[in-house]
């Protein structure tokens, strides 16, 4: 998997090209493409959910905010809840990977428990090379 990421080849095509194409379109046409980063969702889930609702043209009303709708949606979409759903415990995806393996801890920086420092440095180097001059930062 690491070698695939490093080389930029994934199951659905060139990983880096996908990221950059969506990034560029989000800058050119922010009303049609919303670009979000996982760590932003982790640090400010409420703000990011509200941003998604705005983007979709259905912002939360004051009443919905007061009655806890935002918190209920965040709970339904939480990693522990998604992991517990039967549909995510069984079956395999199109590439033969068990659905249950699509979920890890959901912790920003957990890659350090799965990759060596050398692998991390390699990814940093390729990201810097591929994303330079794009304005996109991770």
TrEMBL record:
<dbReference type="InterPro" id="IPR027417">
    <property type="entry name" value="P-loop_NTPase"/>
</dbReference>
<dbReference type="InterPro" id="IPR000863">
    <property type="entry name" value="Sulfotransferase_dom"/>
</dbReference>
<feature type="domain" description="Sulfotransferase">
    <location>
        <begin position="1"/>
        <end position="135"/>
    </location>
</feature>
<protein>
    <recommendedName>
        <fullName>Sulfotransferase</fullName>
        <ecNumber>2.8.2.-</ecNumber>
    </recommendedName>
</protein>
<keyword id="KW-0808">Transferase</keyword>
<dbReference type="GO" id="GO:0008146">
    <property type="term" value="F:sulfotransferase activity"/>
</dbReference>
<comment type="similarity">
    <text>Belongs to the sulfotransferase 1 family.</text>
</comment>
<dbReference type="Pfam" id="PF00685">
    <property type="entry name" value="Sulfotransfer_1"/>
</dbReference>
